[in-house]
């Protein structure tokens, strides 16, 4: 397995060789048309980037030559140096030197750059007019150079998306073939299907691996952002980053970019107090903000934690009651974690005035929707006066998801594992009817429980979700799901297994049914509906 340093070096070399080819192309254009401002600007940009990248990864010779060439083209842009034939010859030699340095990064026998050439570059850089330039004899061009191609290629993300969709289709057919081989009890077919399973699994992980990027490509943008916001707010904030080398699907990173930016801005704007206020509270004058990524099985967990003022739960409770999102008697008994989930309701804000965007909850519904769209989860923990923590749980892939399969009324269903907390079996006597719903004590926690058969098949006007008399048998299989800090128990008829599935959108008019998040095809050829846990949870919140 390649080390992280080796991967970085390969990426640098591939990009540097692209820069080298582009530089040759642009300087050839400039030789014929020195007034081509676009080619001149692009040449300057490429040299500047190459200089910075080489210095960052420790290739100082490449950085030094790039810097000299960058300075020369800067003089040409400012009209302090003319693009004469003598200057062009030196610049071509300089770019050739860059190519040699890049291709010989791993060549220990490669010597120092030619001192005739380096002297000419220095003369061009140090001299501000043609009349003072006295160049040494330049090398002769090597017309017998061989051409080579990079071992790395860049693939547009759309092509990888298409490949992953095809892998998903292949997985469905693979499961169908495996199921048939068991039904037919054919040894040869079993061997082929077993081999197909391994190949498909390797292909799936290969394609998914090609889409991975370091989360640091996003994290490393935040020090400057936090610094600018803190200065604008007249605050002192220290940002700590961890886990930049954690890898994540590029599409998922793209989706969460705006959400993470919003949360960071909120933390600095409204979470962390001013230096004077912090000192008055006995805190250090500098606020602490941590942005941490880590792997958790097949998920990536991103934690954003501040040591600011925290969230006032009484304010949240009062605001929720005032907006008629919850009844006062229910609000009193609601756990803190569930009360905090109201911050994700559309338009929910703790601001004193509607026009004053100073409430911690403004825009969090947009963040929630973005994370929901990829099958992720977000939760909040907060202690007044101590600080607030946002936890983002993100899947490794959008197209392929781990799911729990089960059956209700002879129909197959699936729930994404990211929303599944636990599976328990309890007796019917342990279920209690409270108002319109059933509740149960599950591992010391009171959880609302619903019979899925009633929810999915009865008309809403006829639903009696708190009626135990409709349940079958004395033992109830319950899947405990979680969404937005709220837990819900779903009673199912039969539990099956965990399985990777490819979720396809429902066709019209079924796509208008909120309770279903899509459909997949099982190995048996049967259609399996995928439940939308966020929609089911929201349905129960509105009922109470």
TrEMBL record:
<dbReference type="InterPro" id="IPR036097">
    <property type="entry name" value="HisK_dim/P_sf"/>
</dbReference>
<dbReference type="InterPro" id="IPR005467">
    <property type="entry name" value="His_kinase_dom"/>
</dbReference>
<dbReference type="InterPro" id="IPR036641">
    <property type="entry name" value="HPT_dom_sf"/>
</dbReference>
<dbReference type="GO" id="GO:0005524">
    <property type="term" value="F:ATP binding"/>
</dbReference>
<dbReference type="Pfam" id="PF01627">
    <property type="entry name" value="Hpt"/>
</dbReference>
<dbReference type="Pfam" id="PF02895">
    <property type="entry name" value="H-kinase_dim"/>
</dbReference>
<feature type="domain" description="CheW-like">
    <location>
        <begin position="400"/>
        <end position="542"/>
    </location>
</feature>
<keyword id="KW-0808">Transferase</keyword>
<feature type="modified residue" description="Phosphohistidine">
    <location>
        <position position="48"/>
    </location>
</feature>
<dbReference type="InterPro" id="IPR004105">
    <property type="entry name" value="CheA-like_dim"/>
</dbReference>
<dbReference type="InterPro" id="IPR036890">
    <property type="entry name" value="HATPase_C_sf"/>
</dbReference>
<dbReference type="InterPro" id="IPR036061">
    <property type="entry name" value="CheW-like_dom_sf"/>
</dbReference>
<dbReference type="InterPro" id="IPR004358">
    <property type="entry name" value="Sig_transdc_His_kin-like_C"/>
</dbReference>
<dbReference type="InterPro" id="IPR037006">
    <property type="entry name" value="CheA-like_homodim_sf"/>
</dbReference>
<dbReference type="Pfam" id="PF01584">
    <property type="entry name" value="CheW"/>
</dbReference>
<dbReference type="InterPro" id="IPR008207">
    <property type="entry name" value="Sig_transdc_His_kin_Hpt_dom"/>
</dbReference>
<keyword id="KW-0547">Nucleotide-binding</keyword>
<comment type="function">
    <text>Involved in the transmission of sensory signals from the chemoreceptors to the flagellar motors. CheA is autophosphorylated; it can transfer its phosphate group to either CheB or CheY.</text>
</comment>
<keyword id="KW-0597">Phosphoprotein</keyword>
<dbReference type="InterPro" id="IPR051315">
    <property type="entry name" value="Bact_Chemotaxis_CheA"/>
</dbReference>
<keyword id="KW-0902">Two-component regulatory system</keyword>
<keyword id="KW-0418">Kinase</keyword>
<keyword id="KW-0067">ATP-binding</keyword>
<feature type="domain" description="HPt">
    <location>
        <begin position="1"/>
        <end position="105"/>
    </location>
</feature>
<keyword id="KW-0145">Chemotaxis</keyword>
<protein>
    <recommendedName>
        <fullName>Chemotaxis protein CheA</fullName>
        <ecNumber>2.7.13.3</ecNumber>
    </recommendedName>
</protein>
<dbReference type="GO" id="GO:0005737">
    <property type="term" value="C:cytoplasm"/>
</dbReference>
<dbReference type="Pfam" id="PF02518">
    <property type="entry name" value="HATPase_c"/>
</dbReference>
<feature type="domain" description="Histidine kinase">
    <location>
        <begin position="148"/>
        <end position="398"/>
    </location>
</feature>
<dbReference type="InterPro" id="IPR002545">
    <property type="entry name" value="CheW-lke_dom"/>
</dbReference>
<dbReference type="GO" id="GO:0000155">
    <property type="term" value="F:phosphorelay sensor kinase activity"/>
</dbReference>
<dbReference type="GO" id="GO:0006935">
    <property type="term" value="P:chemotaxis"/>
</dbReference>
<dbReference type="InterPro" id="IPR003594">
    <property type="entry name" value="HATPase_dom"/>
</dbReference>
């Amino acid at each position: 397995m390649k080390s992280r340093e080796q991967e970085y070096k390969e990426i640098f070399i591939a990009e540097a060789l692209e820069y080298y080819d582009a530089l040759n192309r642009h300087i050839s254009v400039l030789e014929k048309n020195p007034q081509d401002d676009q080619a001149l600007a692009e040449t300057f940009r490429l040299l500047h980037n190459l200089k910075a990248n080489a210095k960052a990864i420790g290739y100082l010779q490449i950085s030094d030559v790039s810097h000299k060439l960058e300075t020369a083209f800067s003089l040409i842009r400012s009209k302090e140096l003319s693009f004469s034939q003598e200057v062009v010859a030196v610049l071509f030699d300089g770019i050739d030197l860059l190519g040699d340095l890049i291709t010989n990064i791993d060549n220990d026998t490669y010597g120092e750059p030619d001192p005739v050439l380096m002297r000419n570059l220095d003369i061009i850089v140090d001299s501000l007019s043609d009349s003072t330039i006295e160049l040494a004899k330049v090398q002769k061009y090597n017309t017998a150079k061989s051409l080579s191609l990079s071992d790395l290629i860049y693939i547009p993300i759309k092509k990888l998306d298409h490949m992953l969709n095809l892998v998903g289709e292949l997985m469905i057919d693979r499961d169908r073939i495996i199921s048939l081989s068991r039904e037919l009890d054919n040894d040869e077919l079993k061997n082929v299907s077993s081999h197909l399973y391994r190949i498909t699994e390797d292909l799936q992980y290969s394609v998914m691996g090609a889409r991975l990027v370091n989360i640091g490509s996003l994290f490393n943008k935040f020090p400057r952002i936090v610094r600018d916001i803190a200065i604008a707010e007249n605050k002192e904030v220290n940002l700590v980053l961890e886990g930049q080398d954690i890898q994540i699907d590029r599409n998922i990173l793209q989706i969460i970019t705006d959400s993470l930016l919003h949360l960071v801005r909120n933390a600095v704007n409204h979470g962390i107090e001013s230096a004077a206020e912090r000192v008055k509270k006995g805190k250090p004058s500098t606020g602490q903000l941590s942005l941490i990524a880590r792997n958790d099985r097949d998920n990536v967990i991103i934690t954003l934690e501040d040591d600011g003022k925290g969230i006032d739960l009484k304010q949240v409770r009062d605001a929720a009651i005032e907006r008629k999102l919850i009844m006062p008697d229910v609000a009193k008994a609601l756990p803190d974690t569930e009360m905090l989930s109201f911050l994700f309701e559309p338009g929910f804000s703790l601001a004193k005035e509607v026009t004053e965007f100073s409430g911690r909850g403004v825009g969090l519904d947009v963040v929630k929707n973005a994370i929901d769209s990829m099958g992720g989860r977000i939760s909040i923990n907060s202690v007044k006066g101590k600080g607030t923590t946002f936890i983002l749980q993100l899947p490794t892939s959008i197209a392929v998801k781990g799911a729990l399969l089960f059956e209700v009324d002879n129909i197959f269903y699936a729930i994404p594992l990211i929303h599944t907390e636990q599976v328990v079996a309890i007796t019917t006597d342990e279920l209690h009817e409270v108002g319109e719903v059933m509740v149960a004590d599950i591992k010391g926690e009171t959880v609302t429980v619903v019979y899925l058969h009633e929810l999915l098949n009865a008309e809403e006007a006829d639903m009696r979700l708190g009626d135990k008399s409709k349940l079958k048998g004395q033992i109830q299989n319950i899947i405990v799901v979680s969404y937005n800090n709220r837990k819900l128990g779903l009673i199912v008829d039969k539990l099956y297994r965990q399985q990777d599935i490819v979720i396809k959108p429902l066709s019209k008019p079924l796509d208008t049914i909120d309770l279903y998040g899509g459909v997949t095809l099982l190995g048996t050829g049967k259609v399996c509906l995928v439940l939308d846990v966020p929609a089911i949870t929201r349905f129960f919140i509105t009922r109470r």
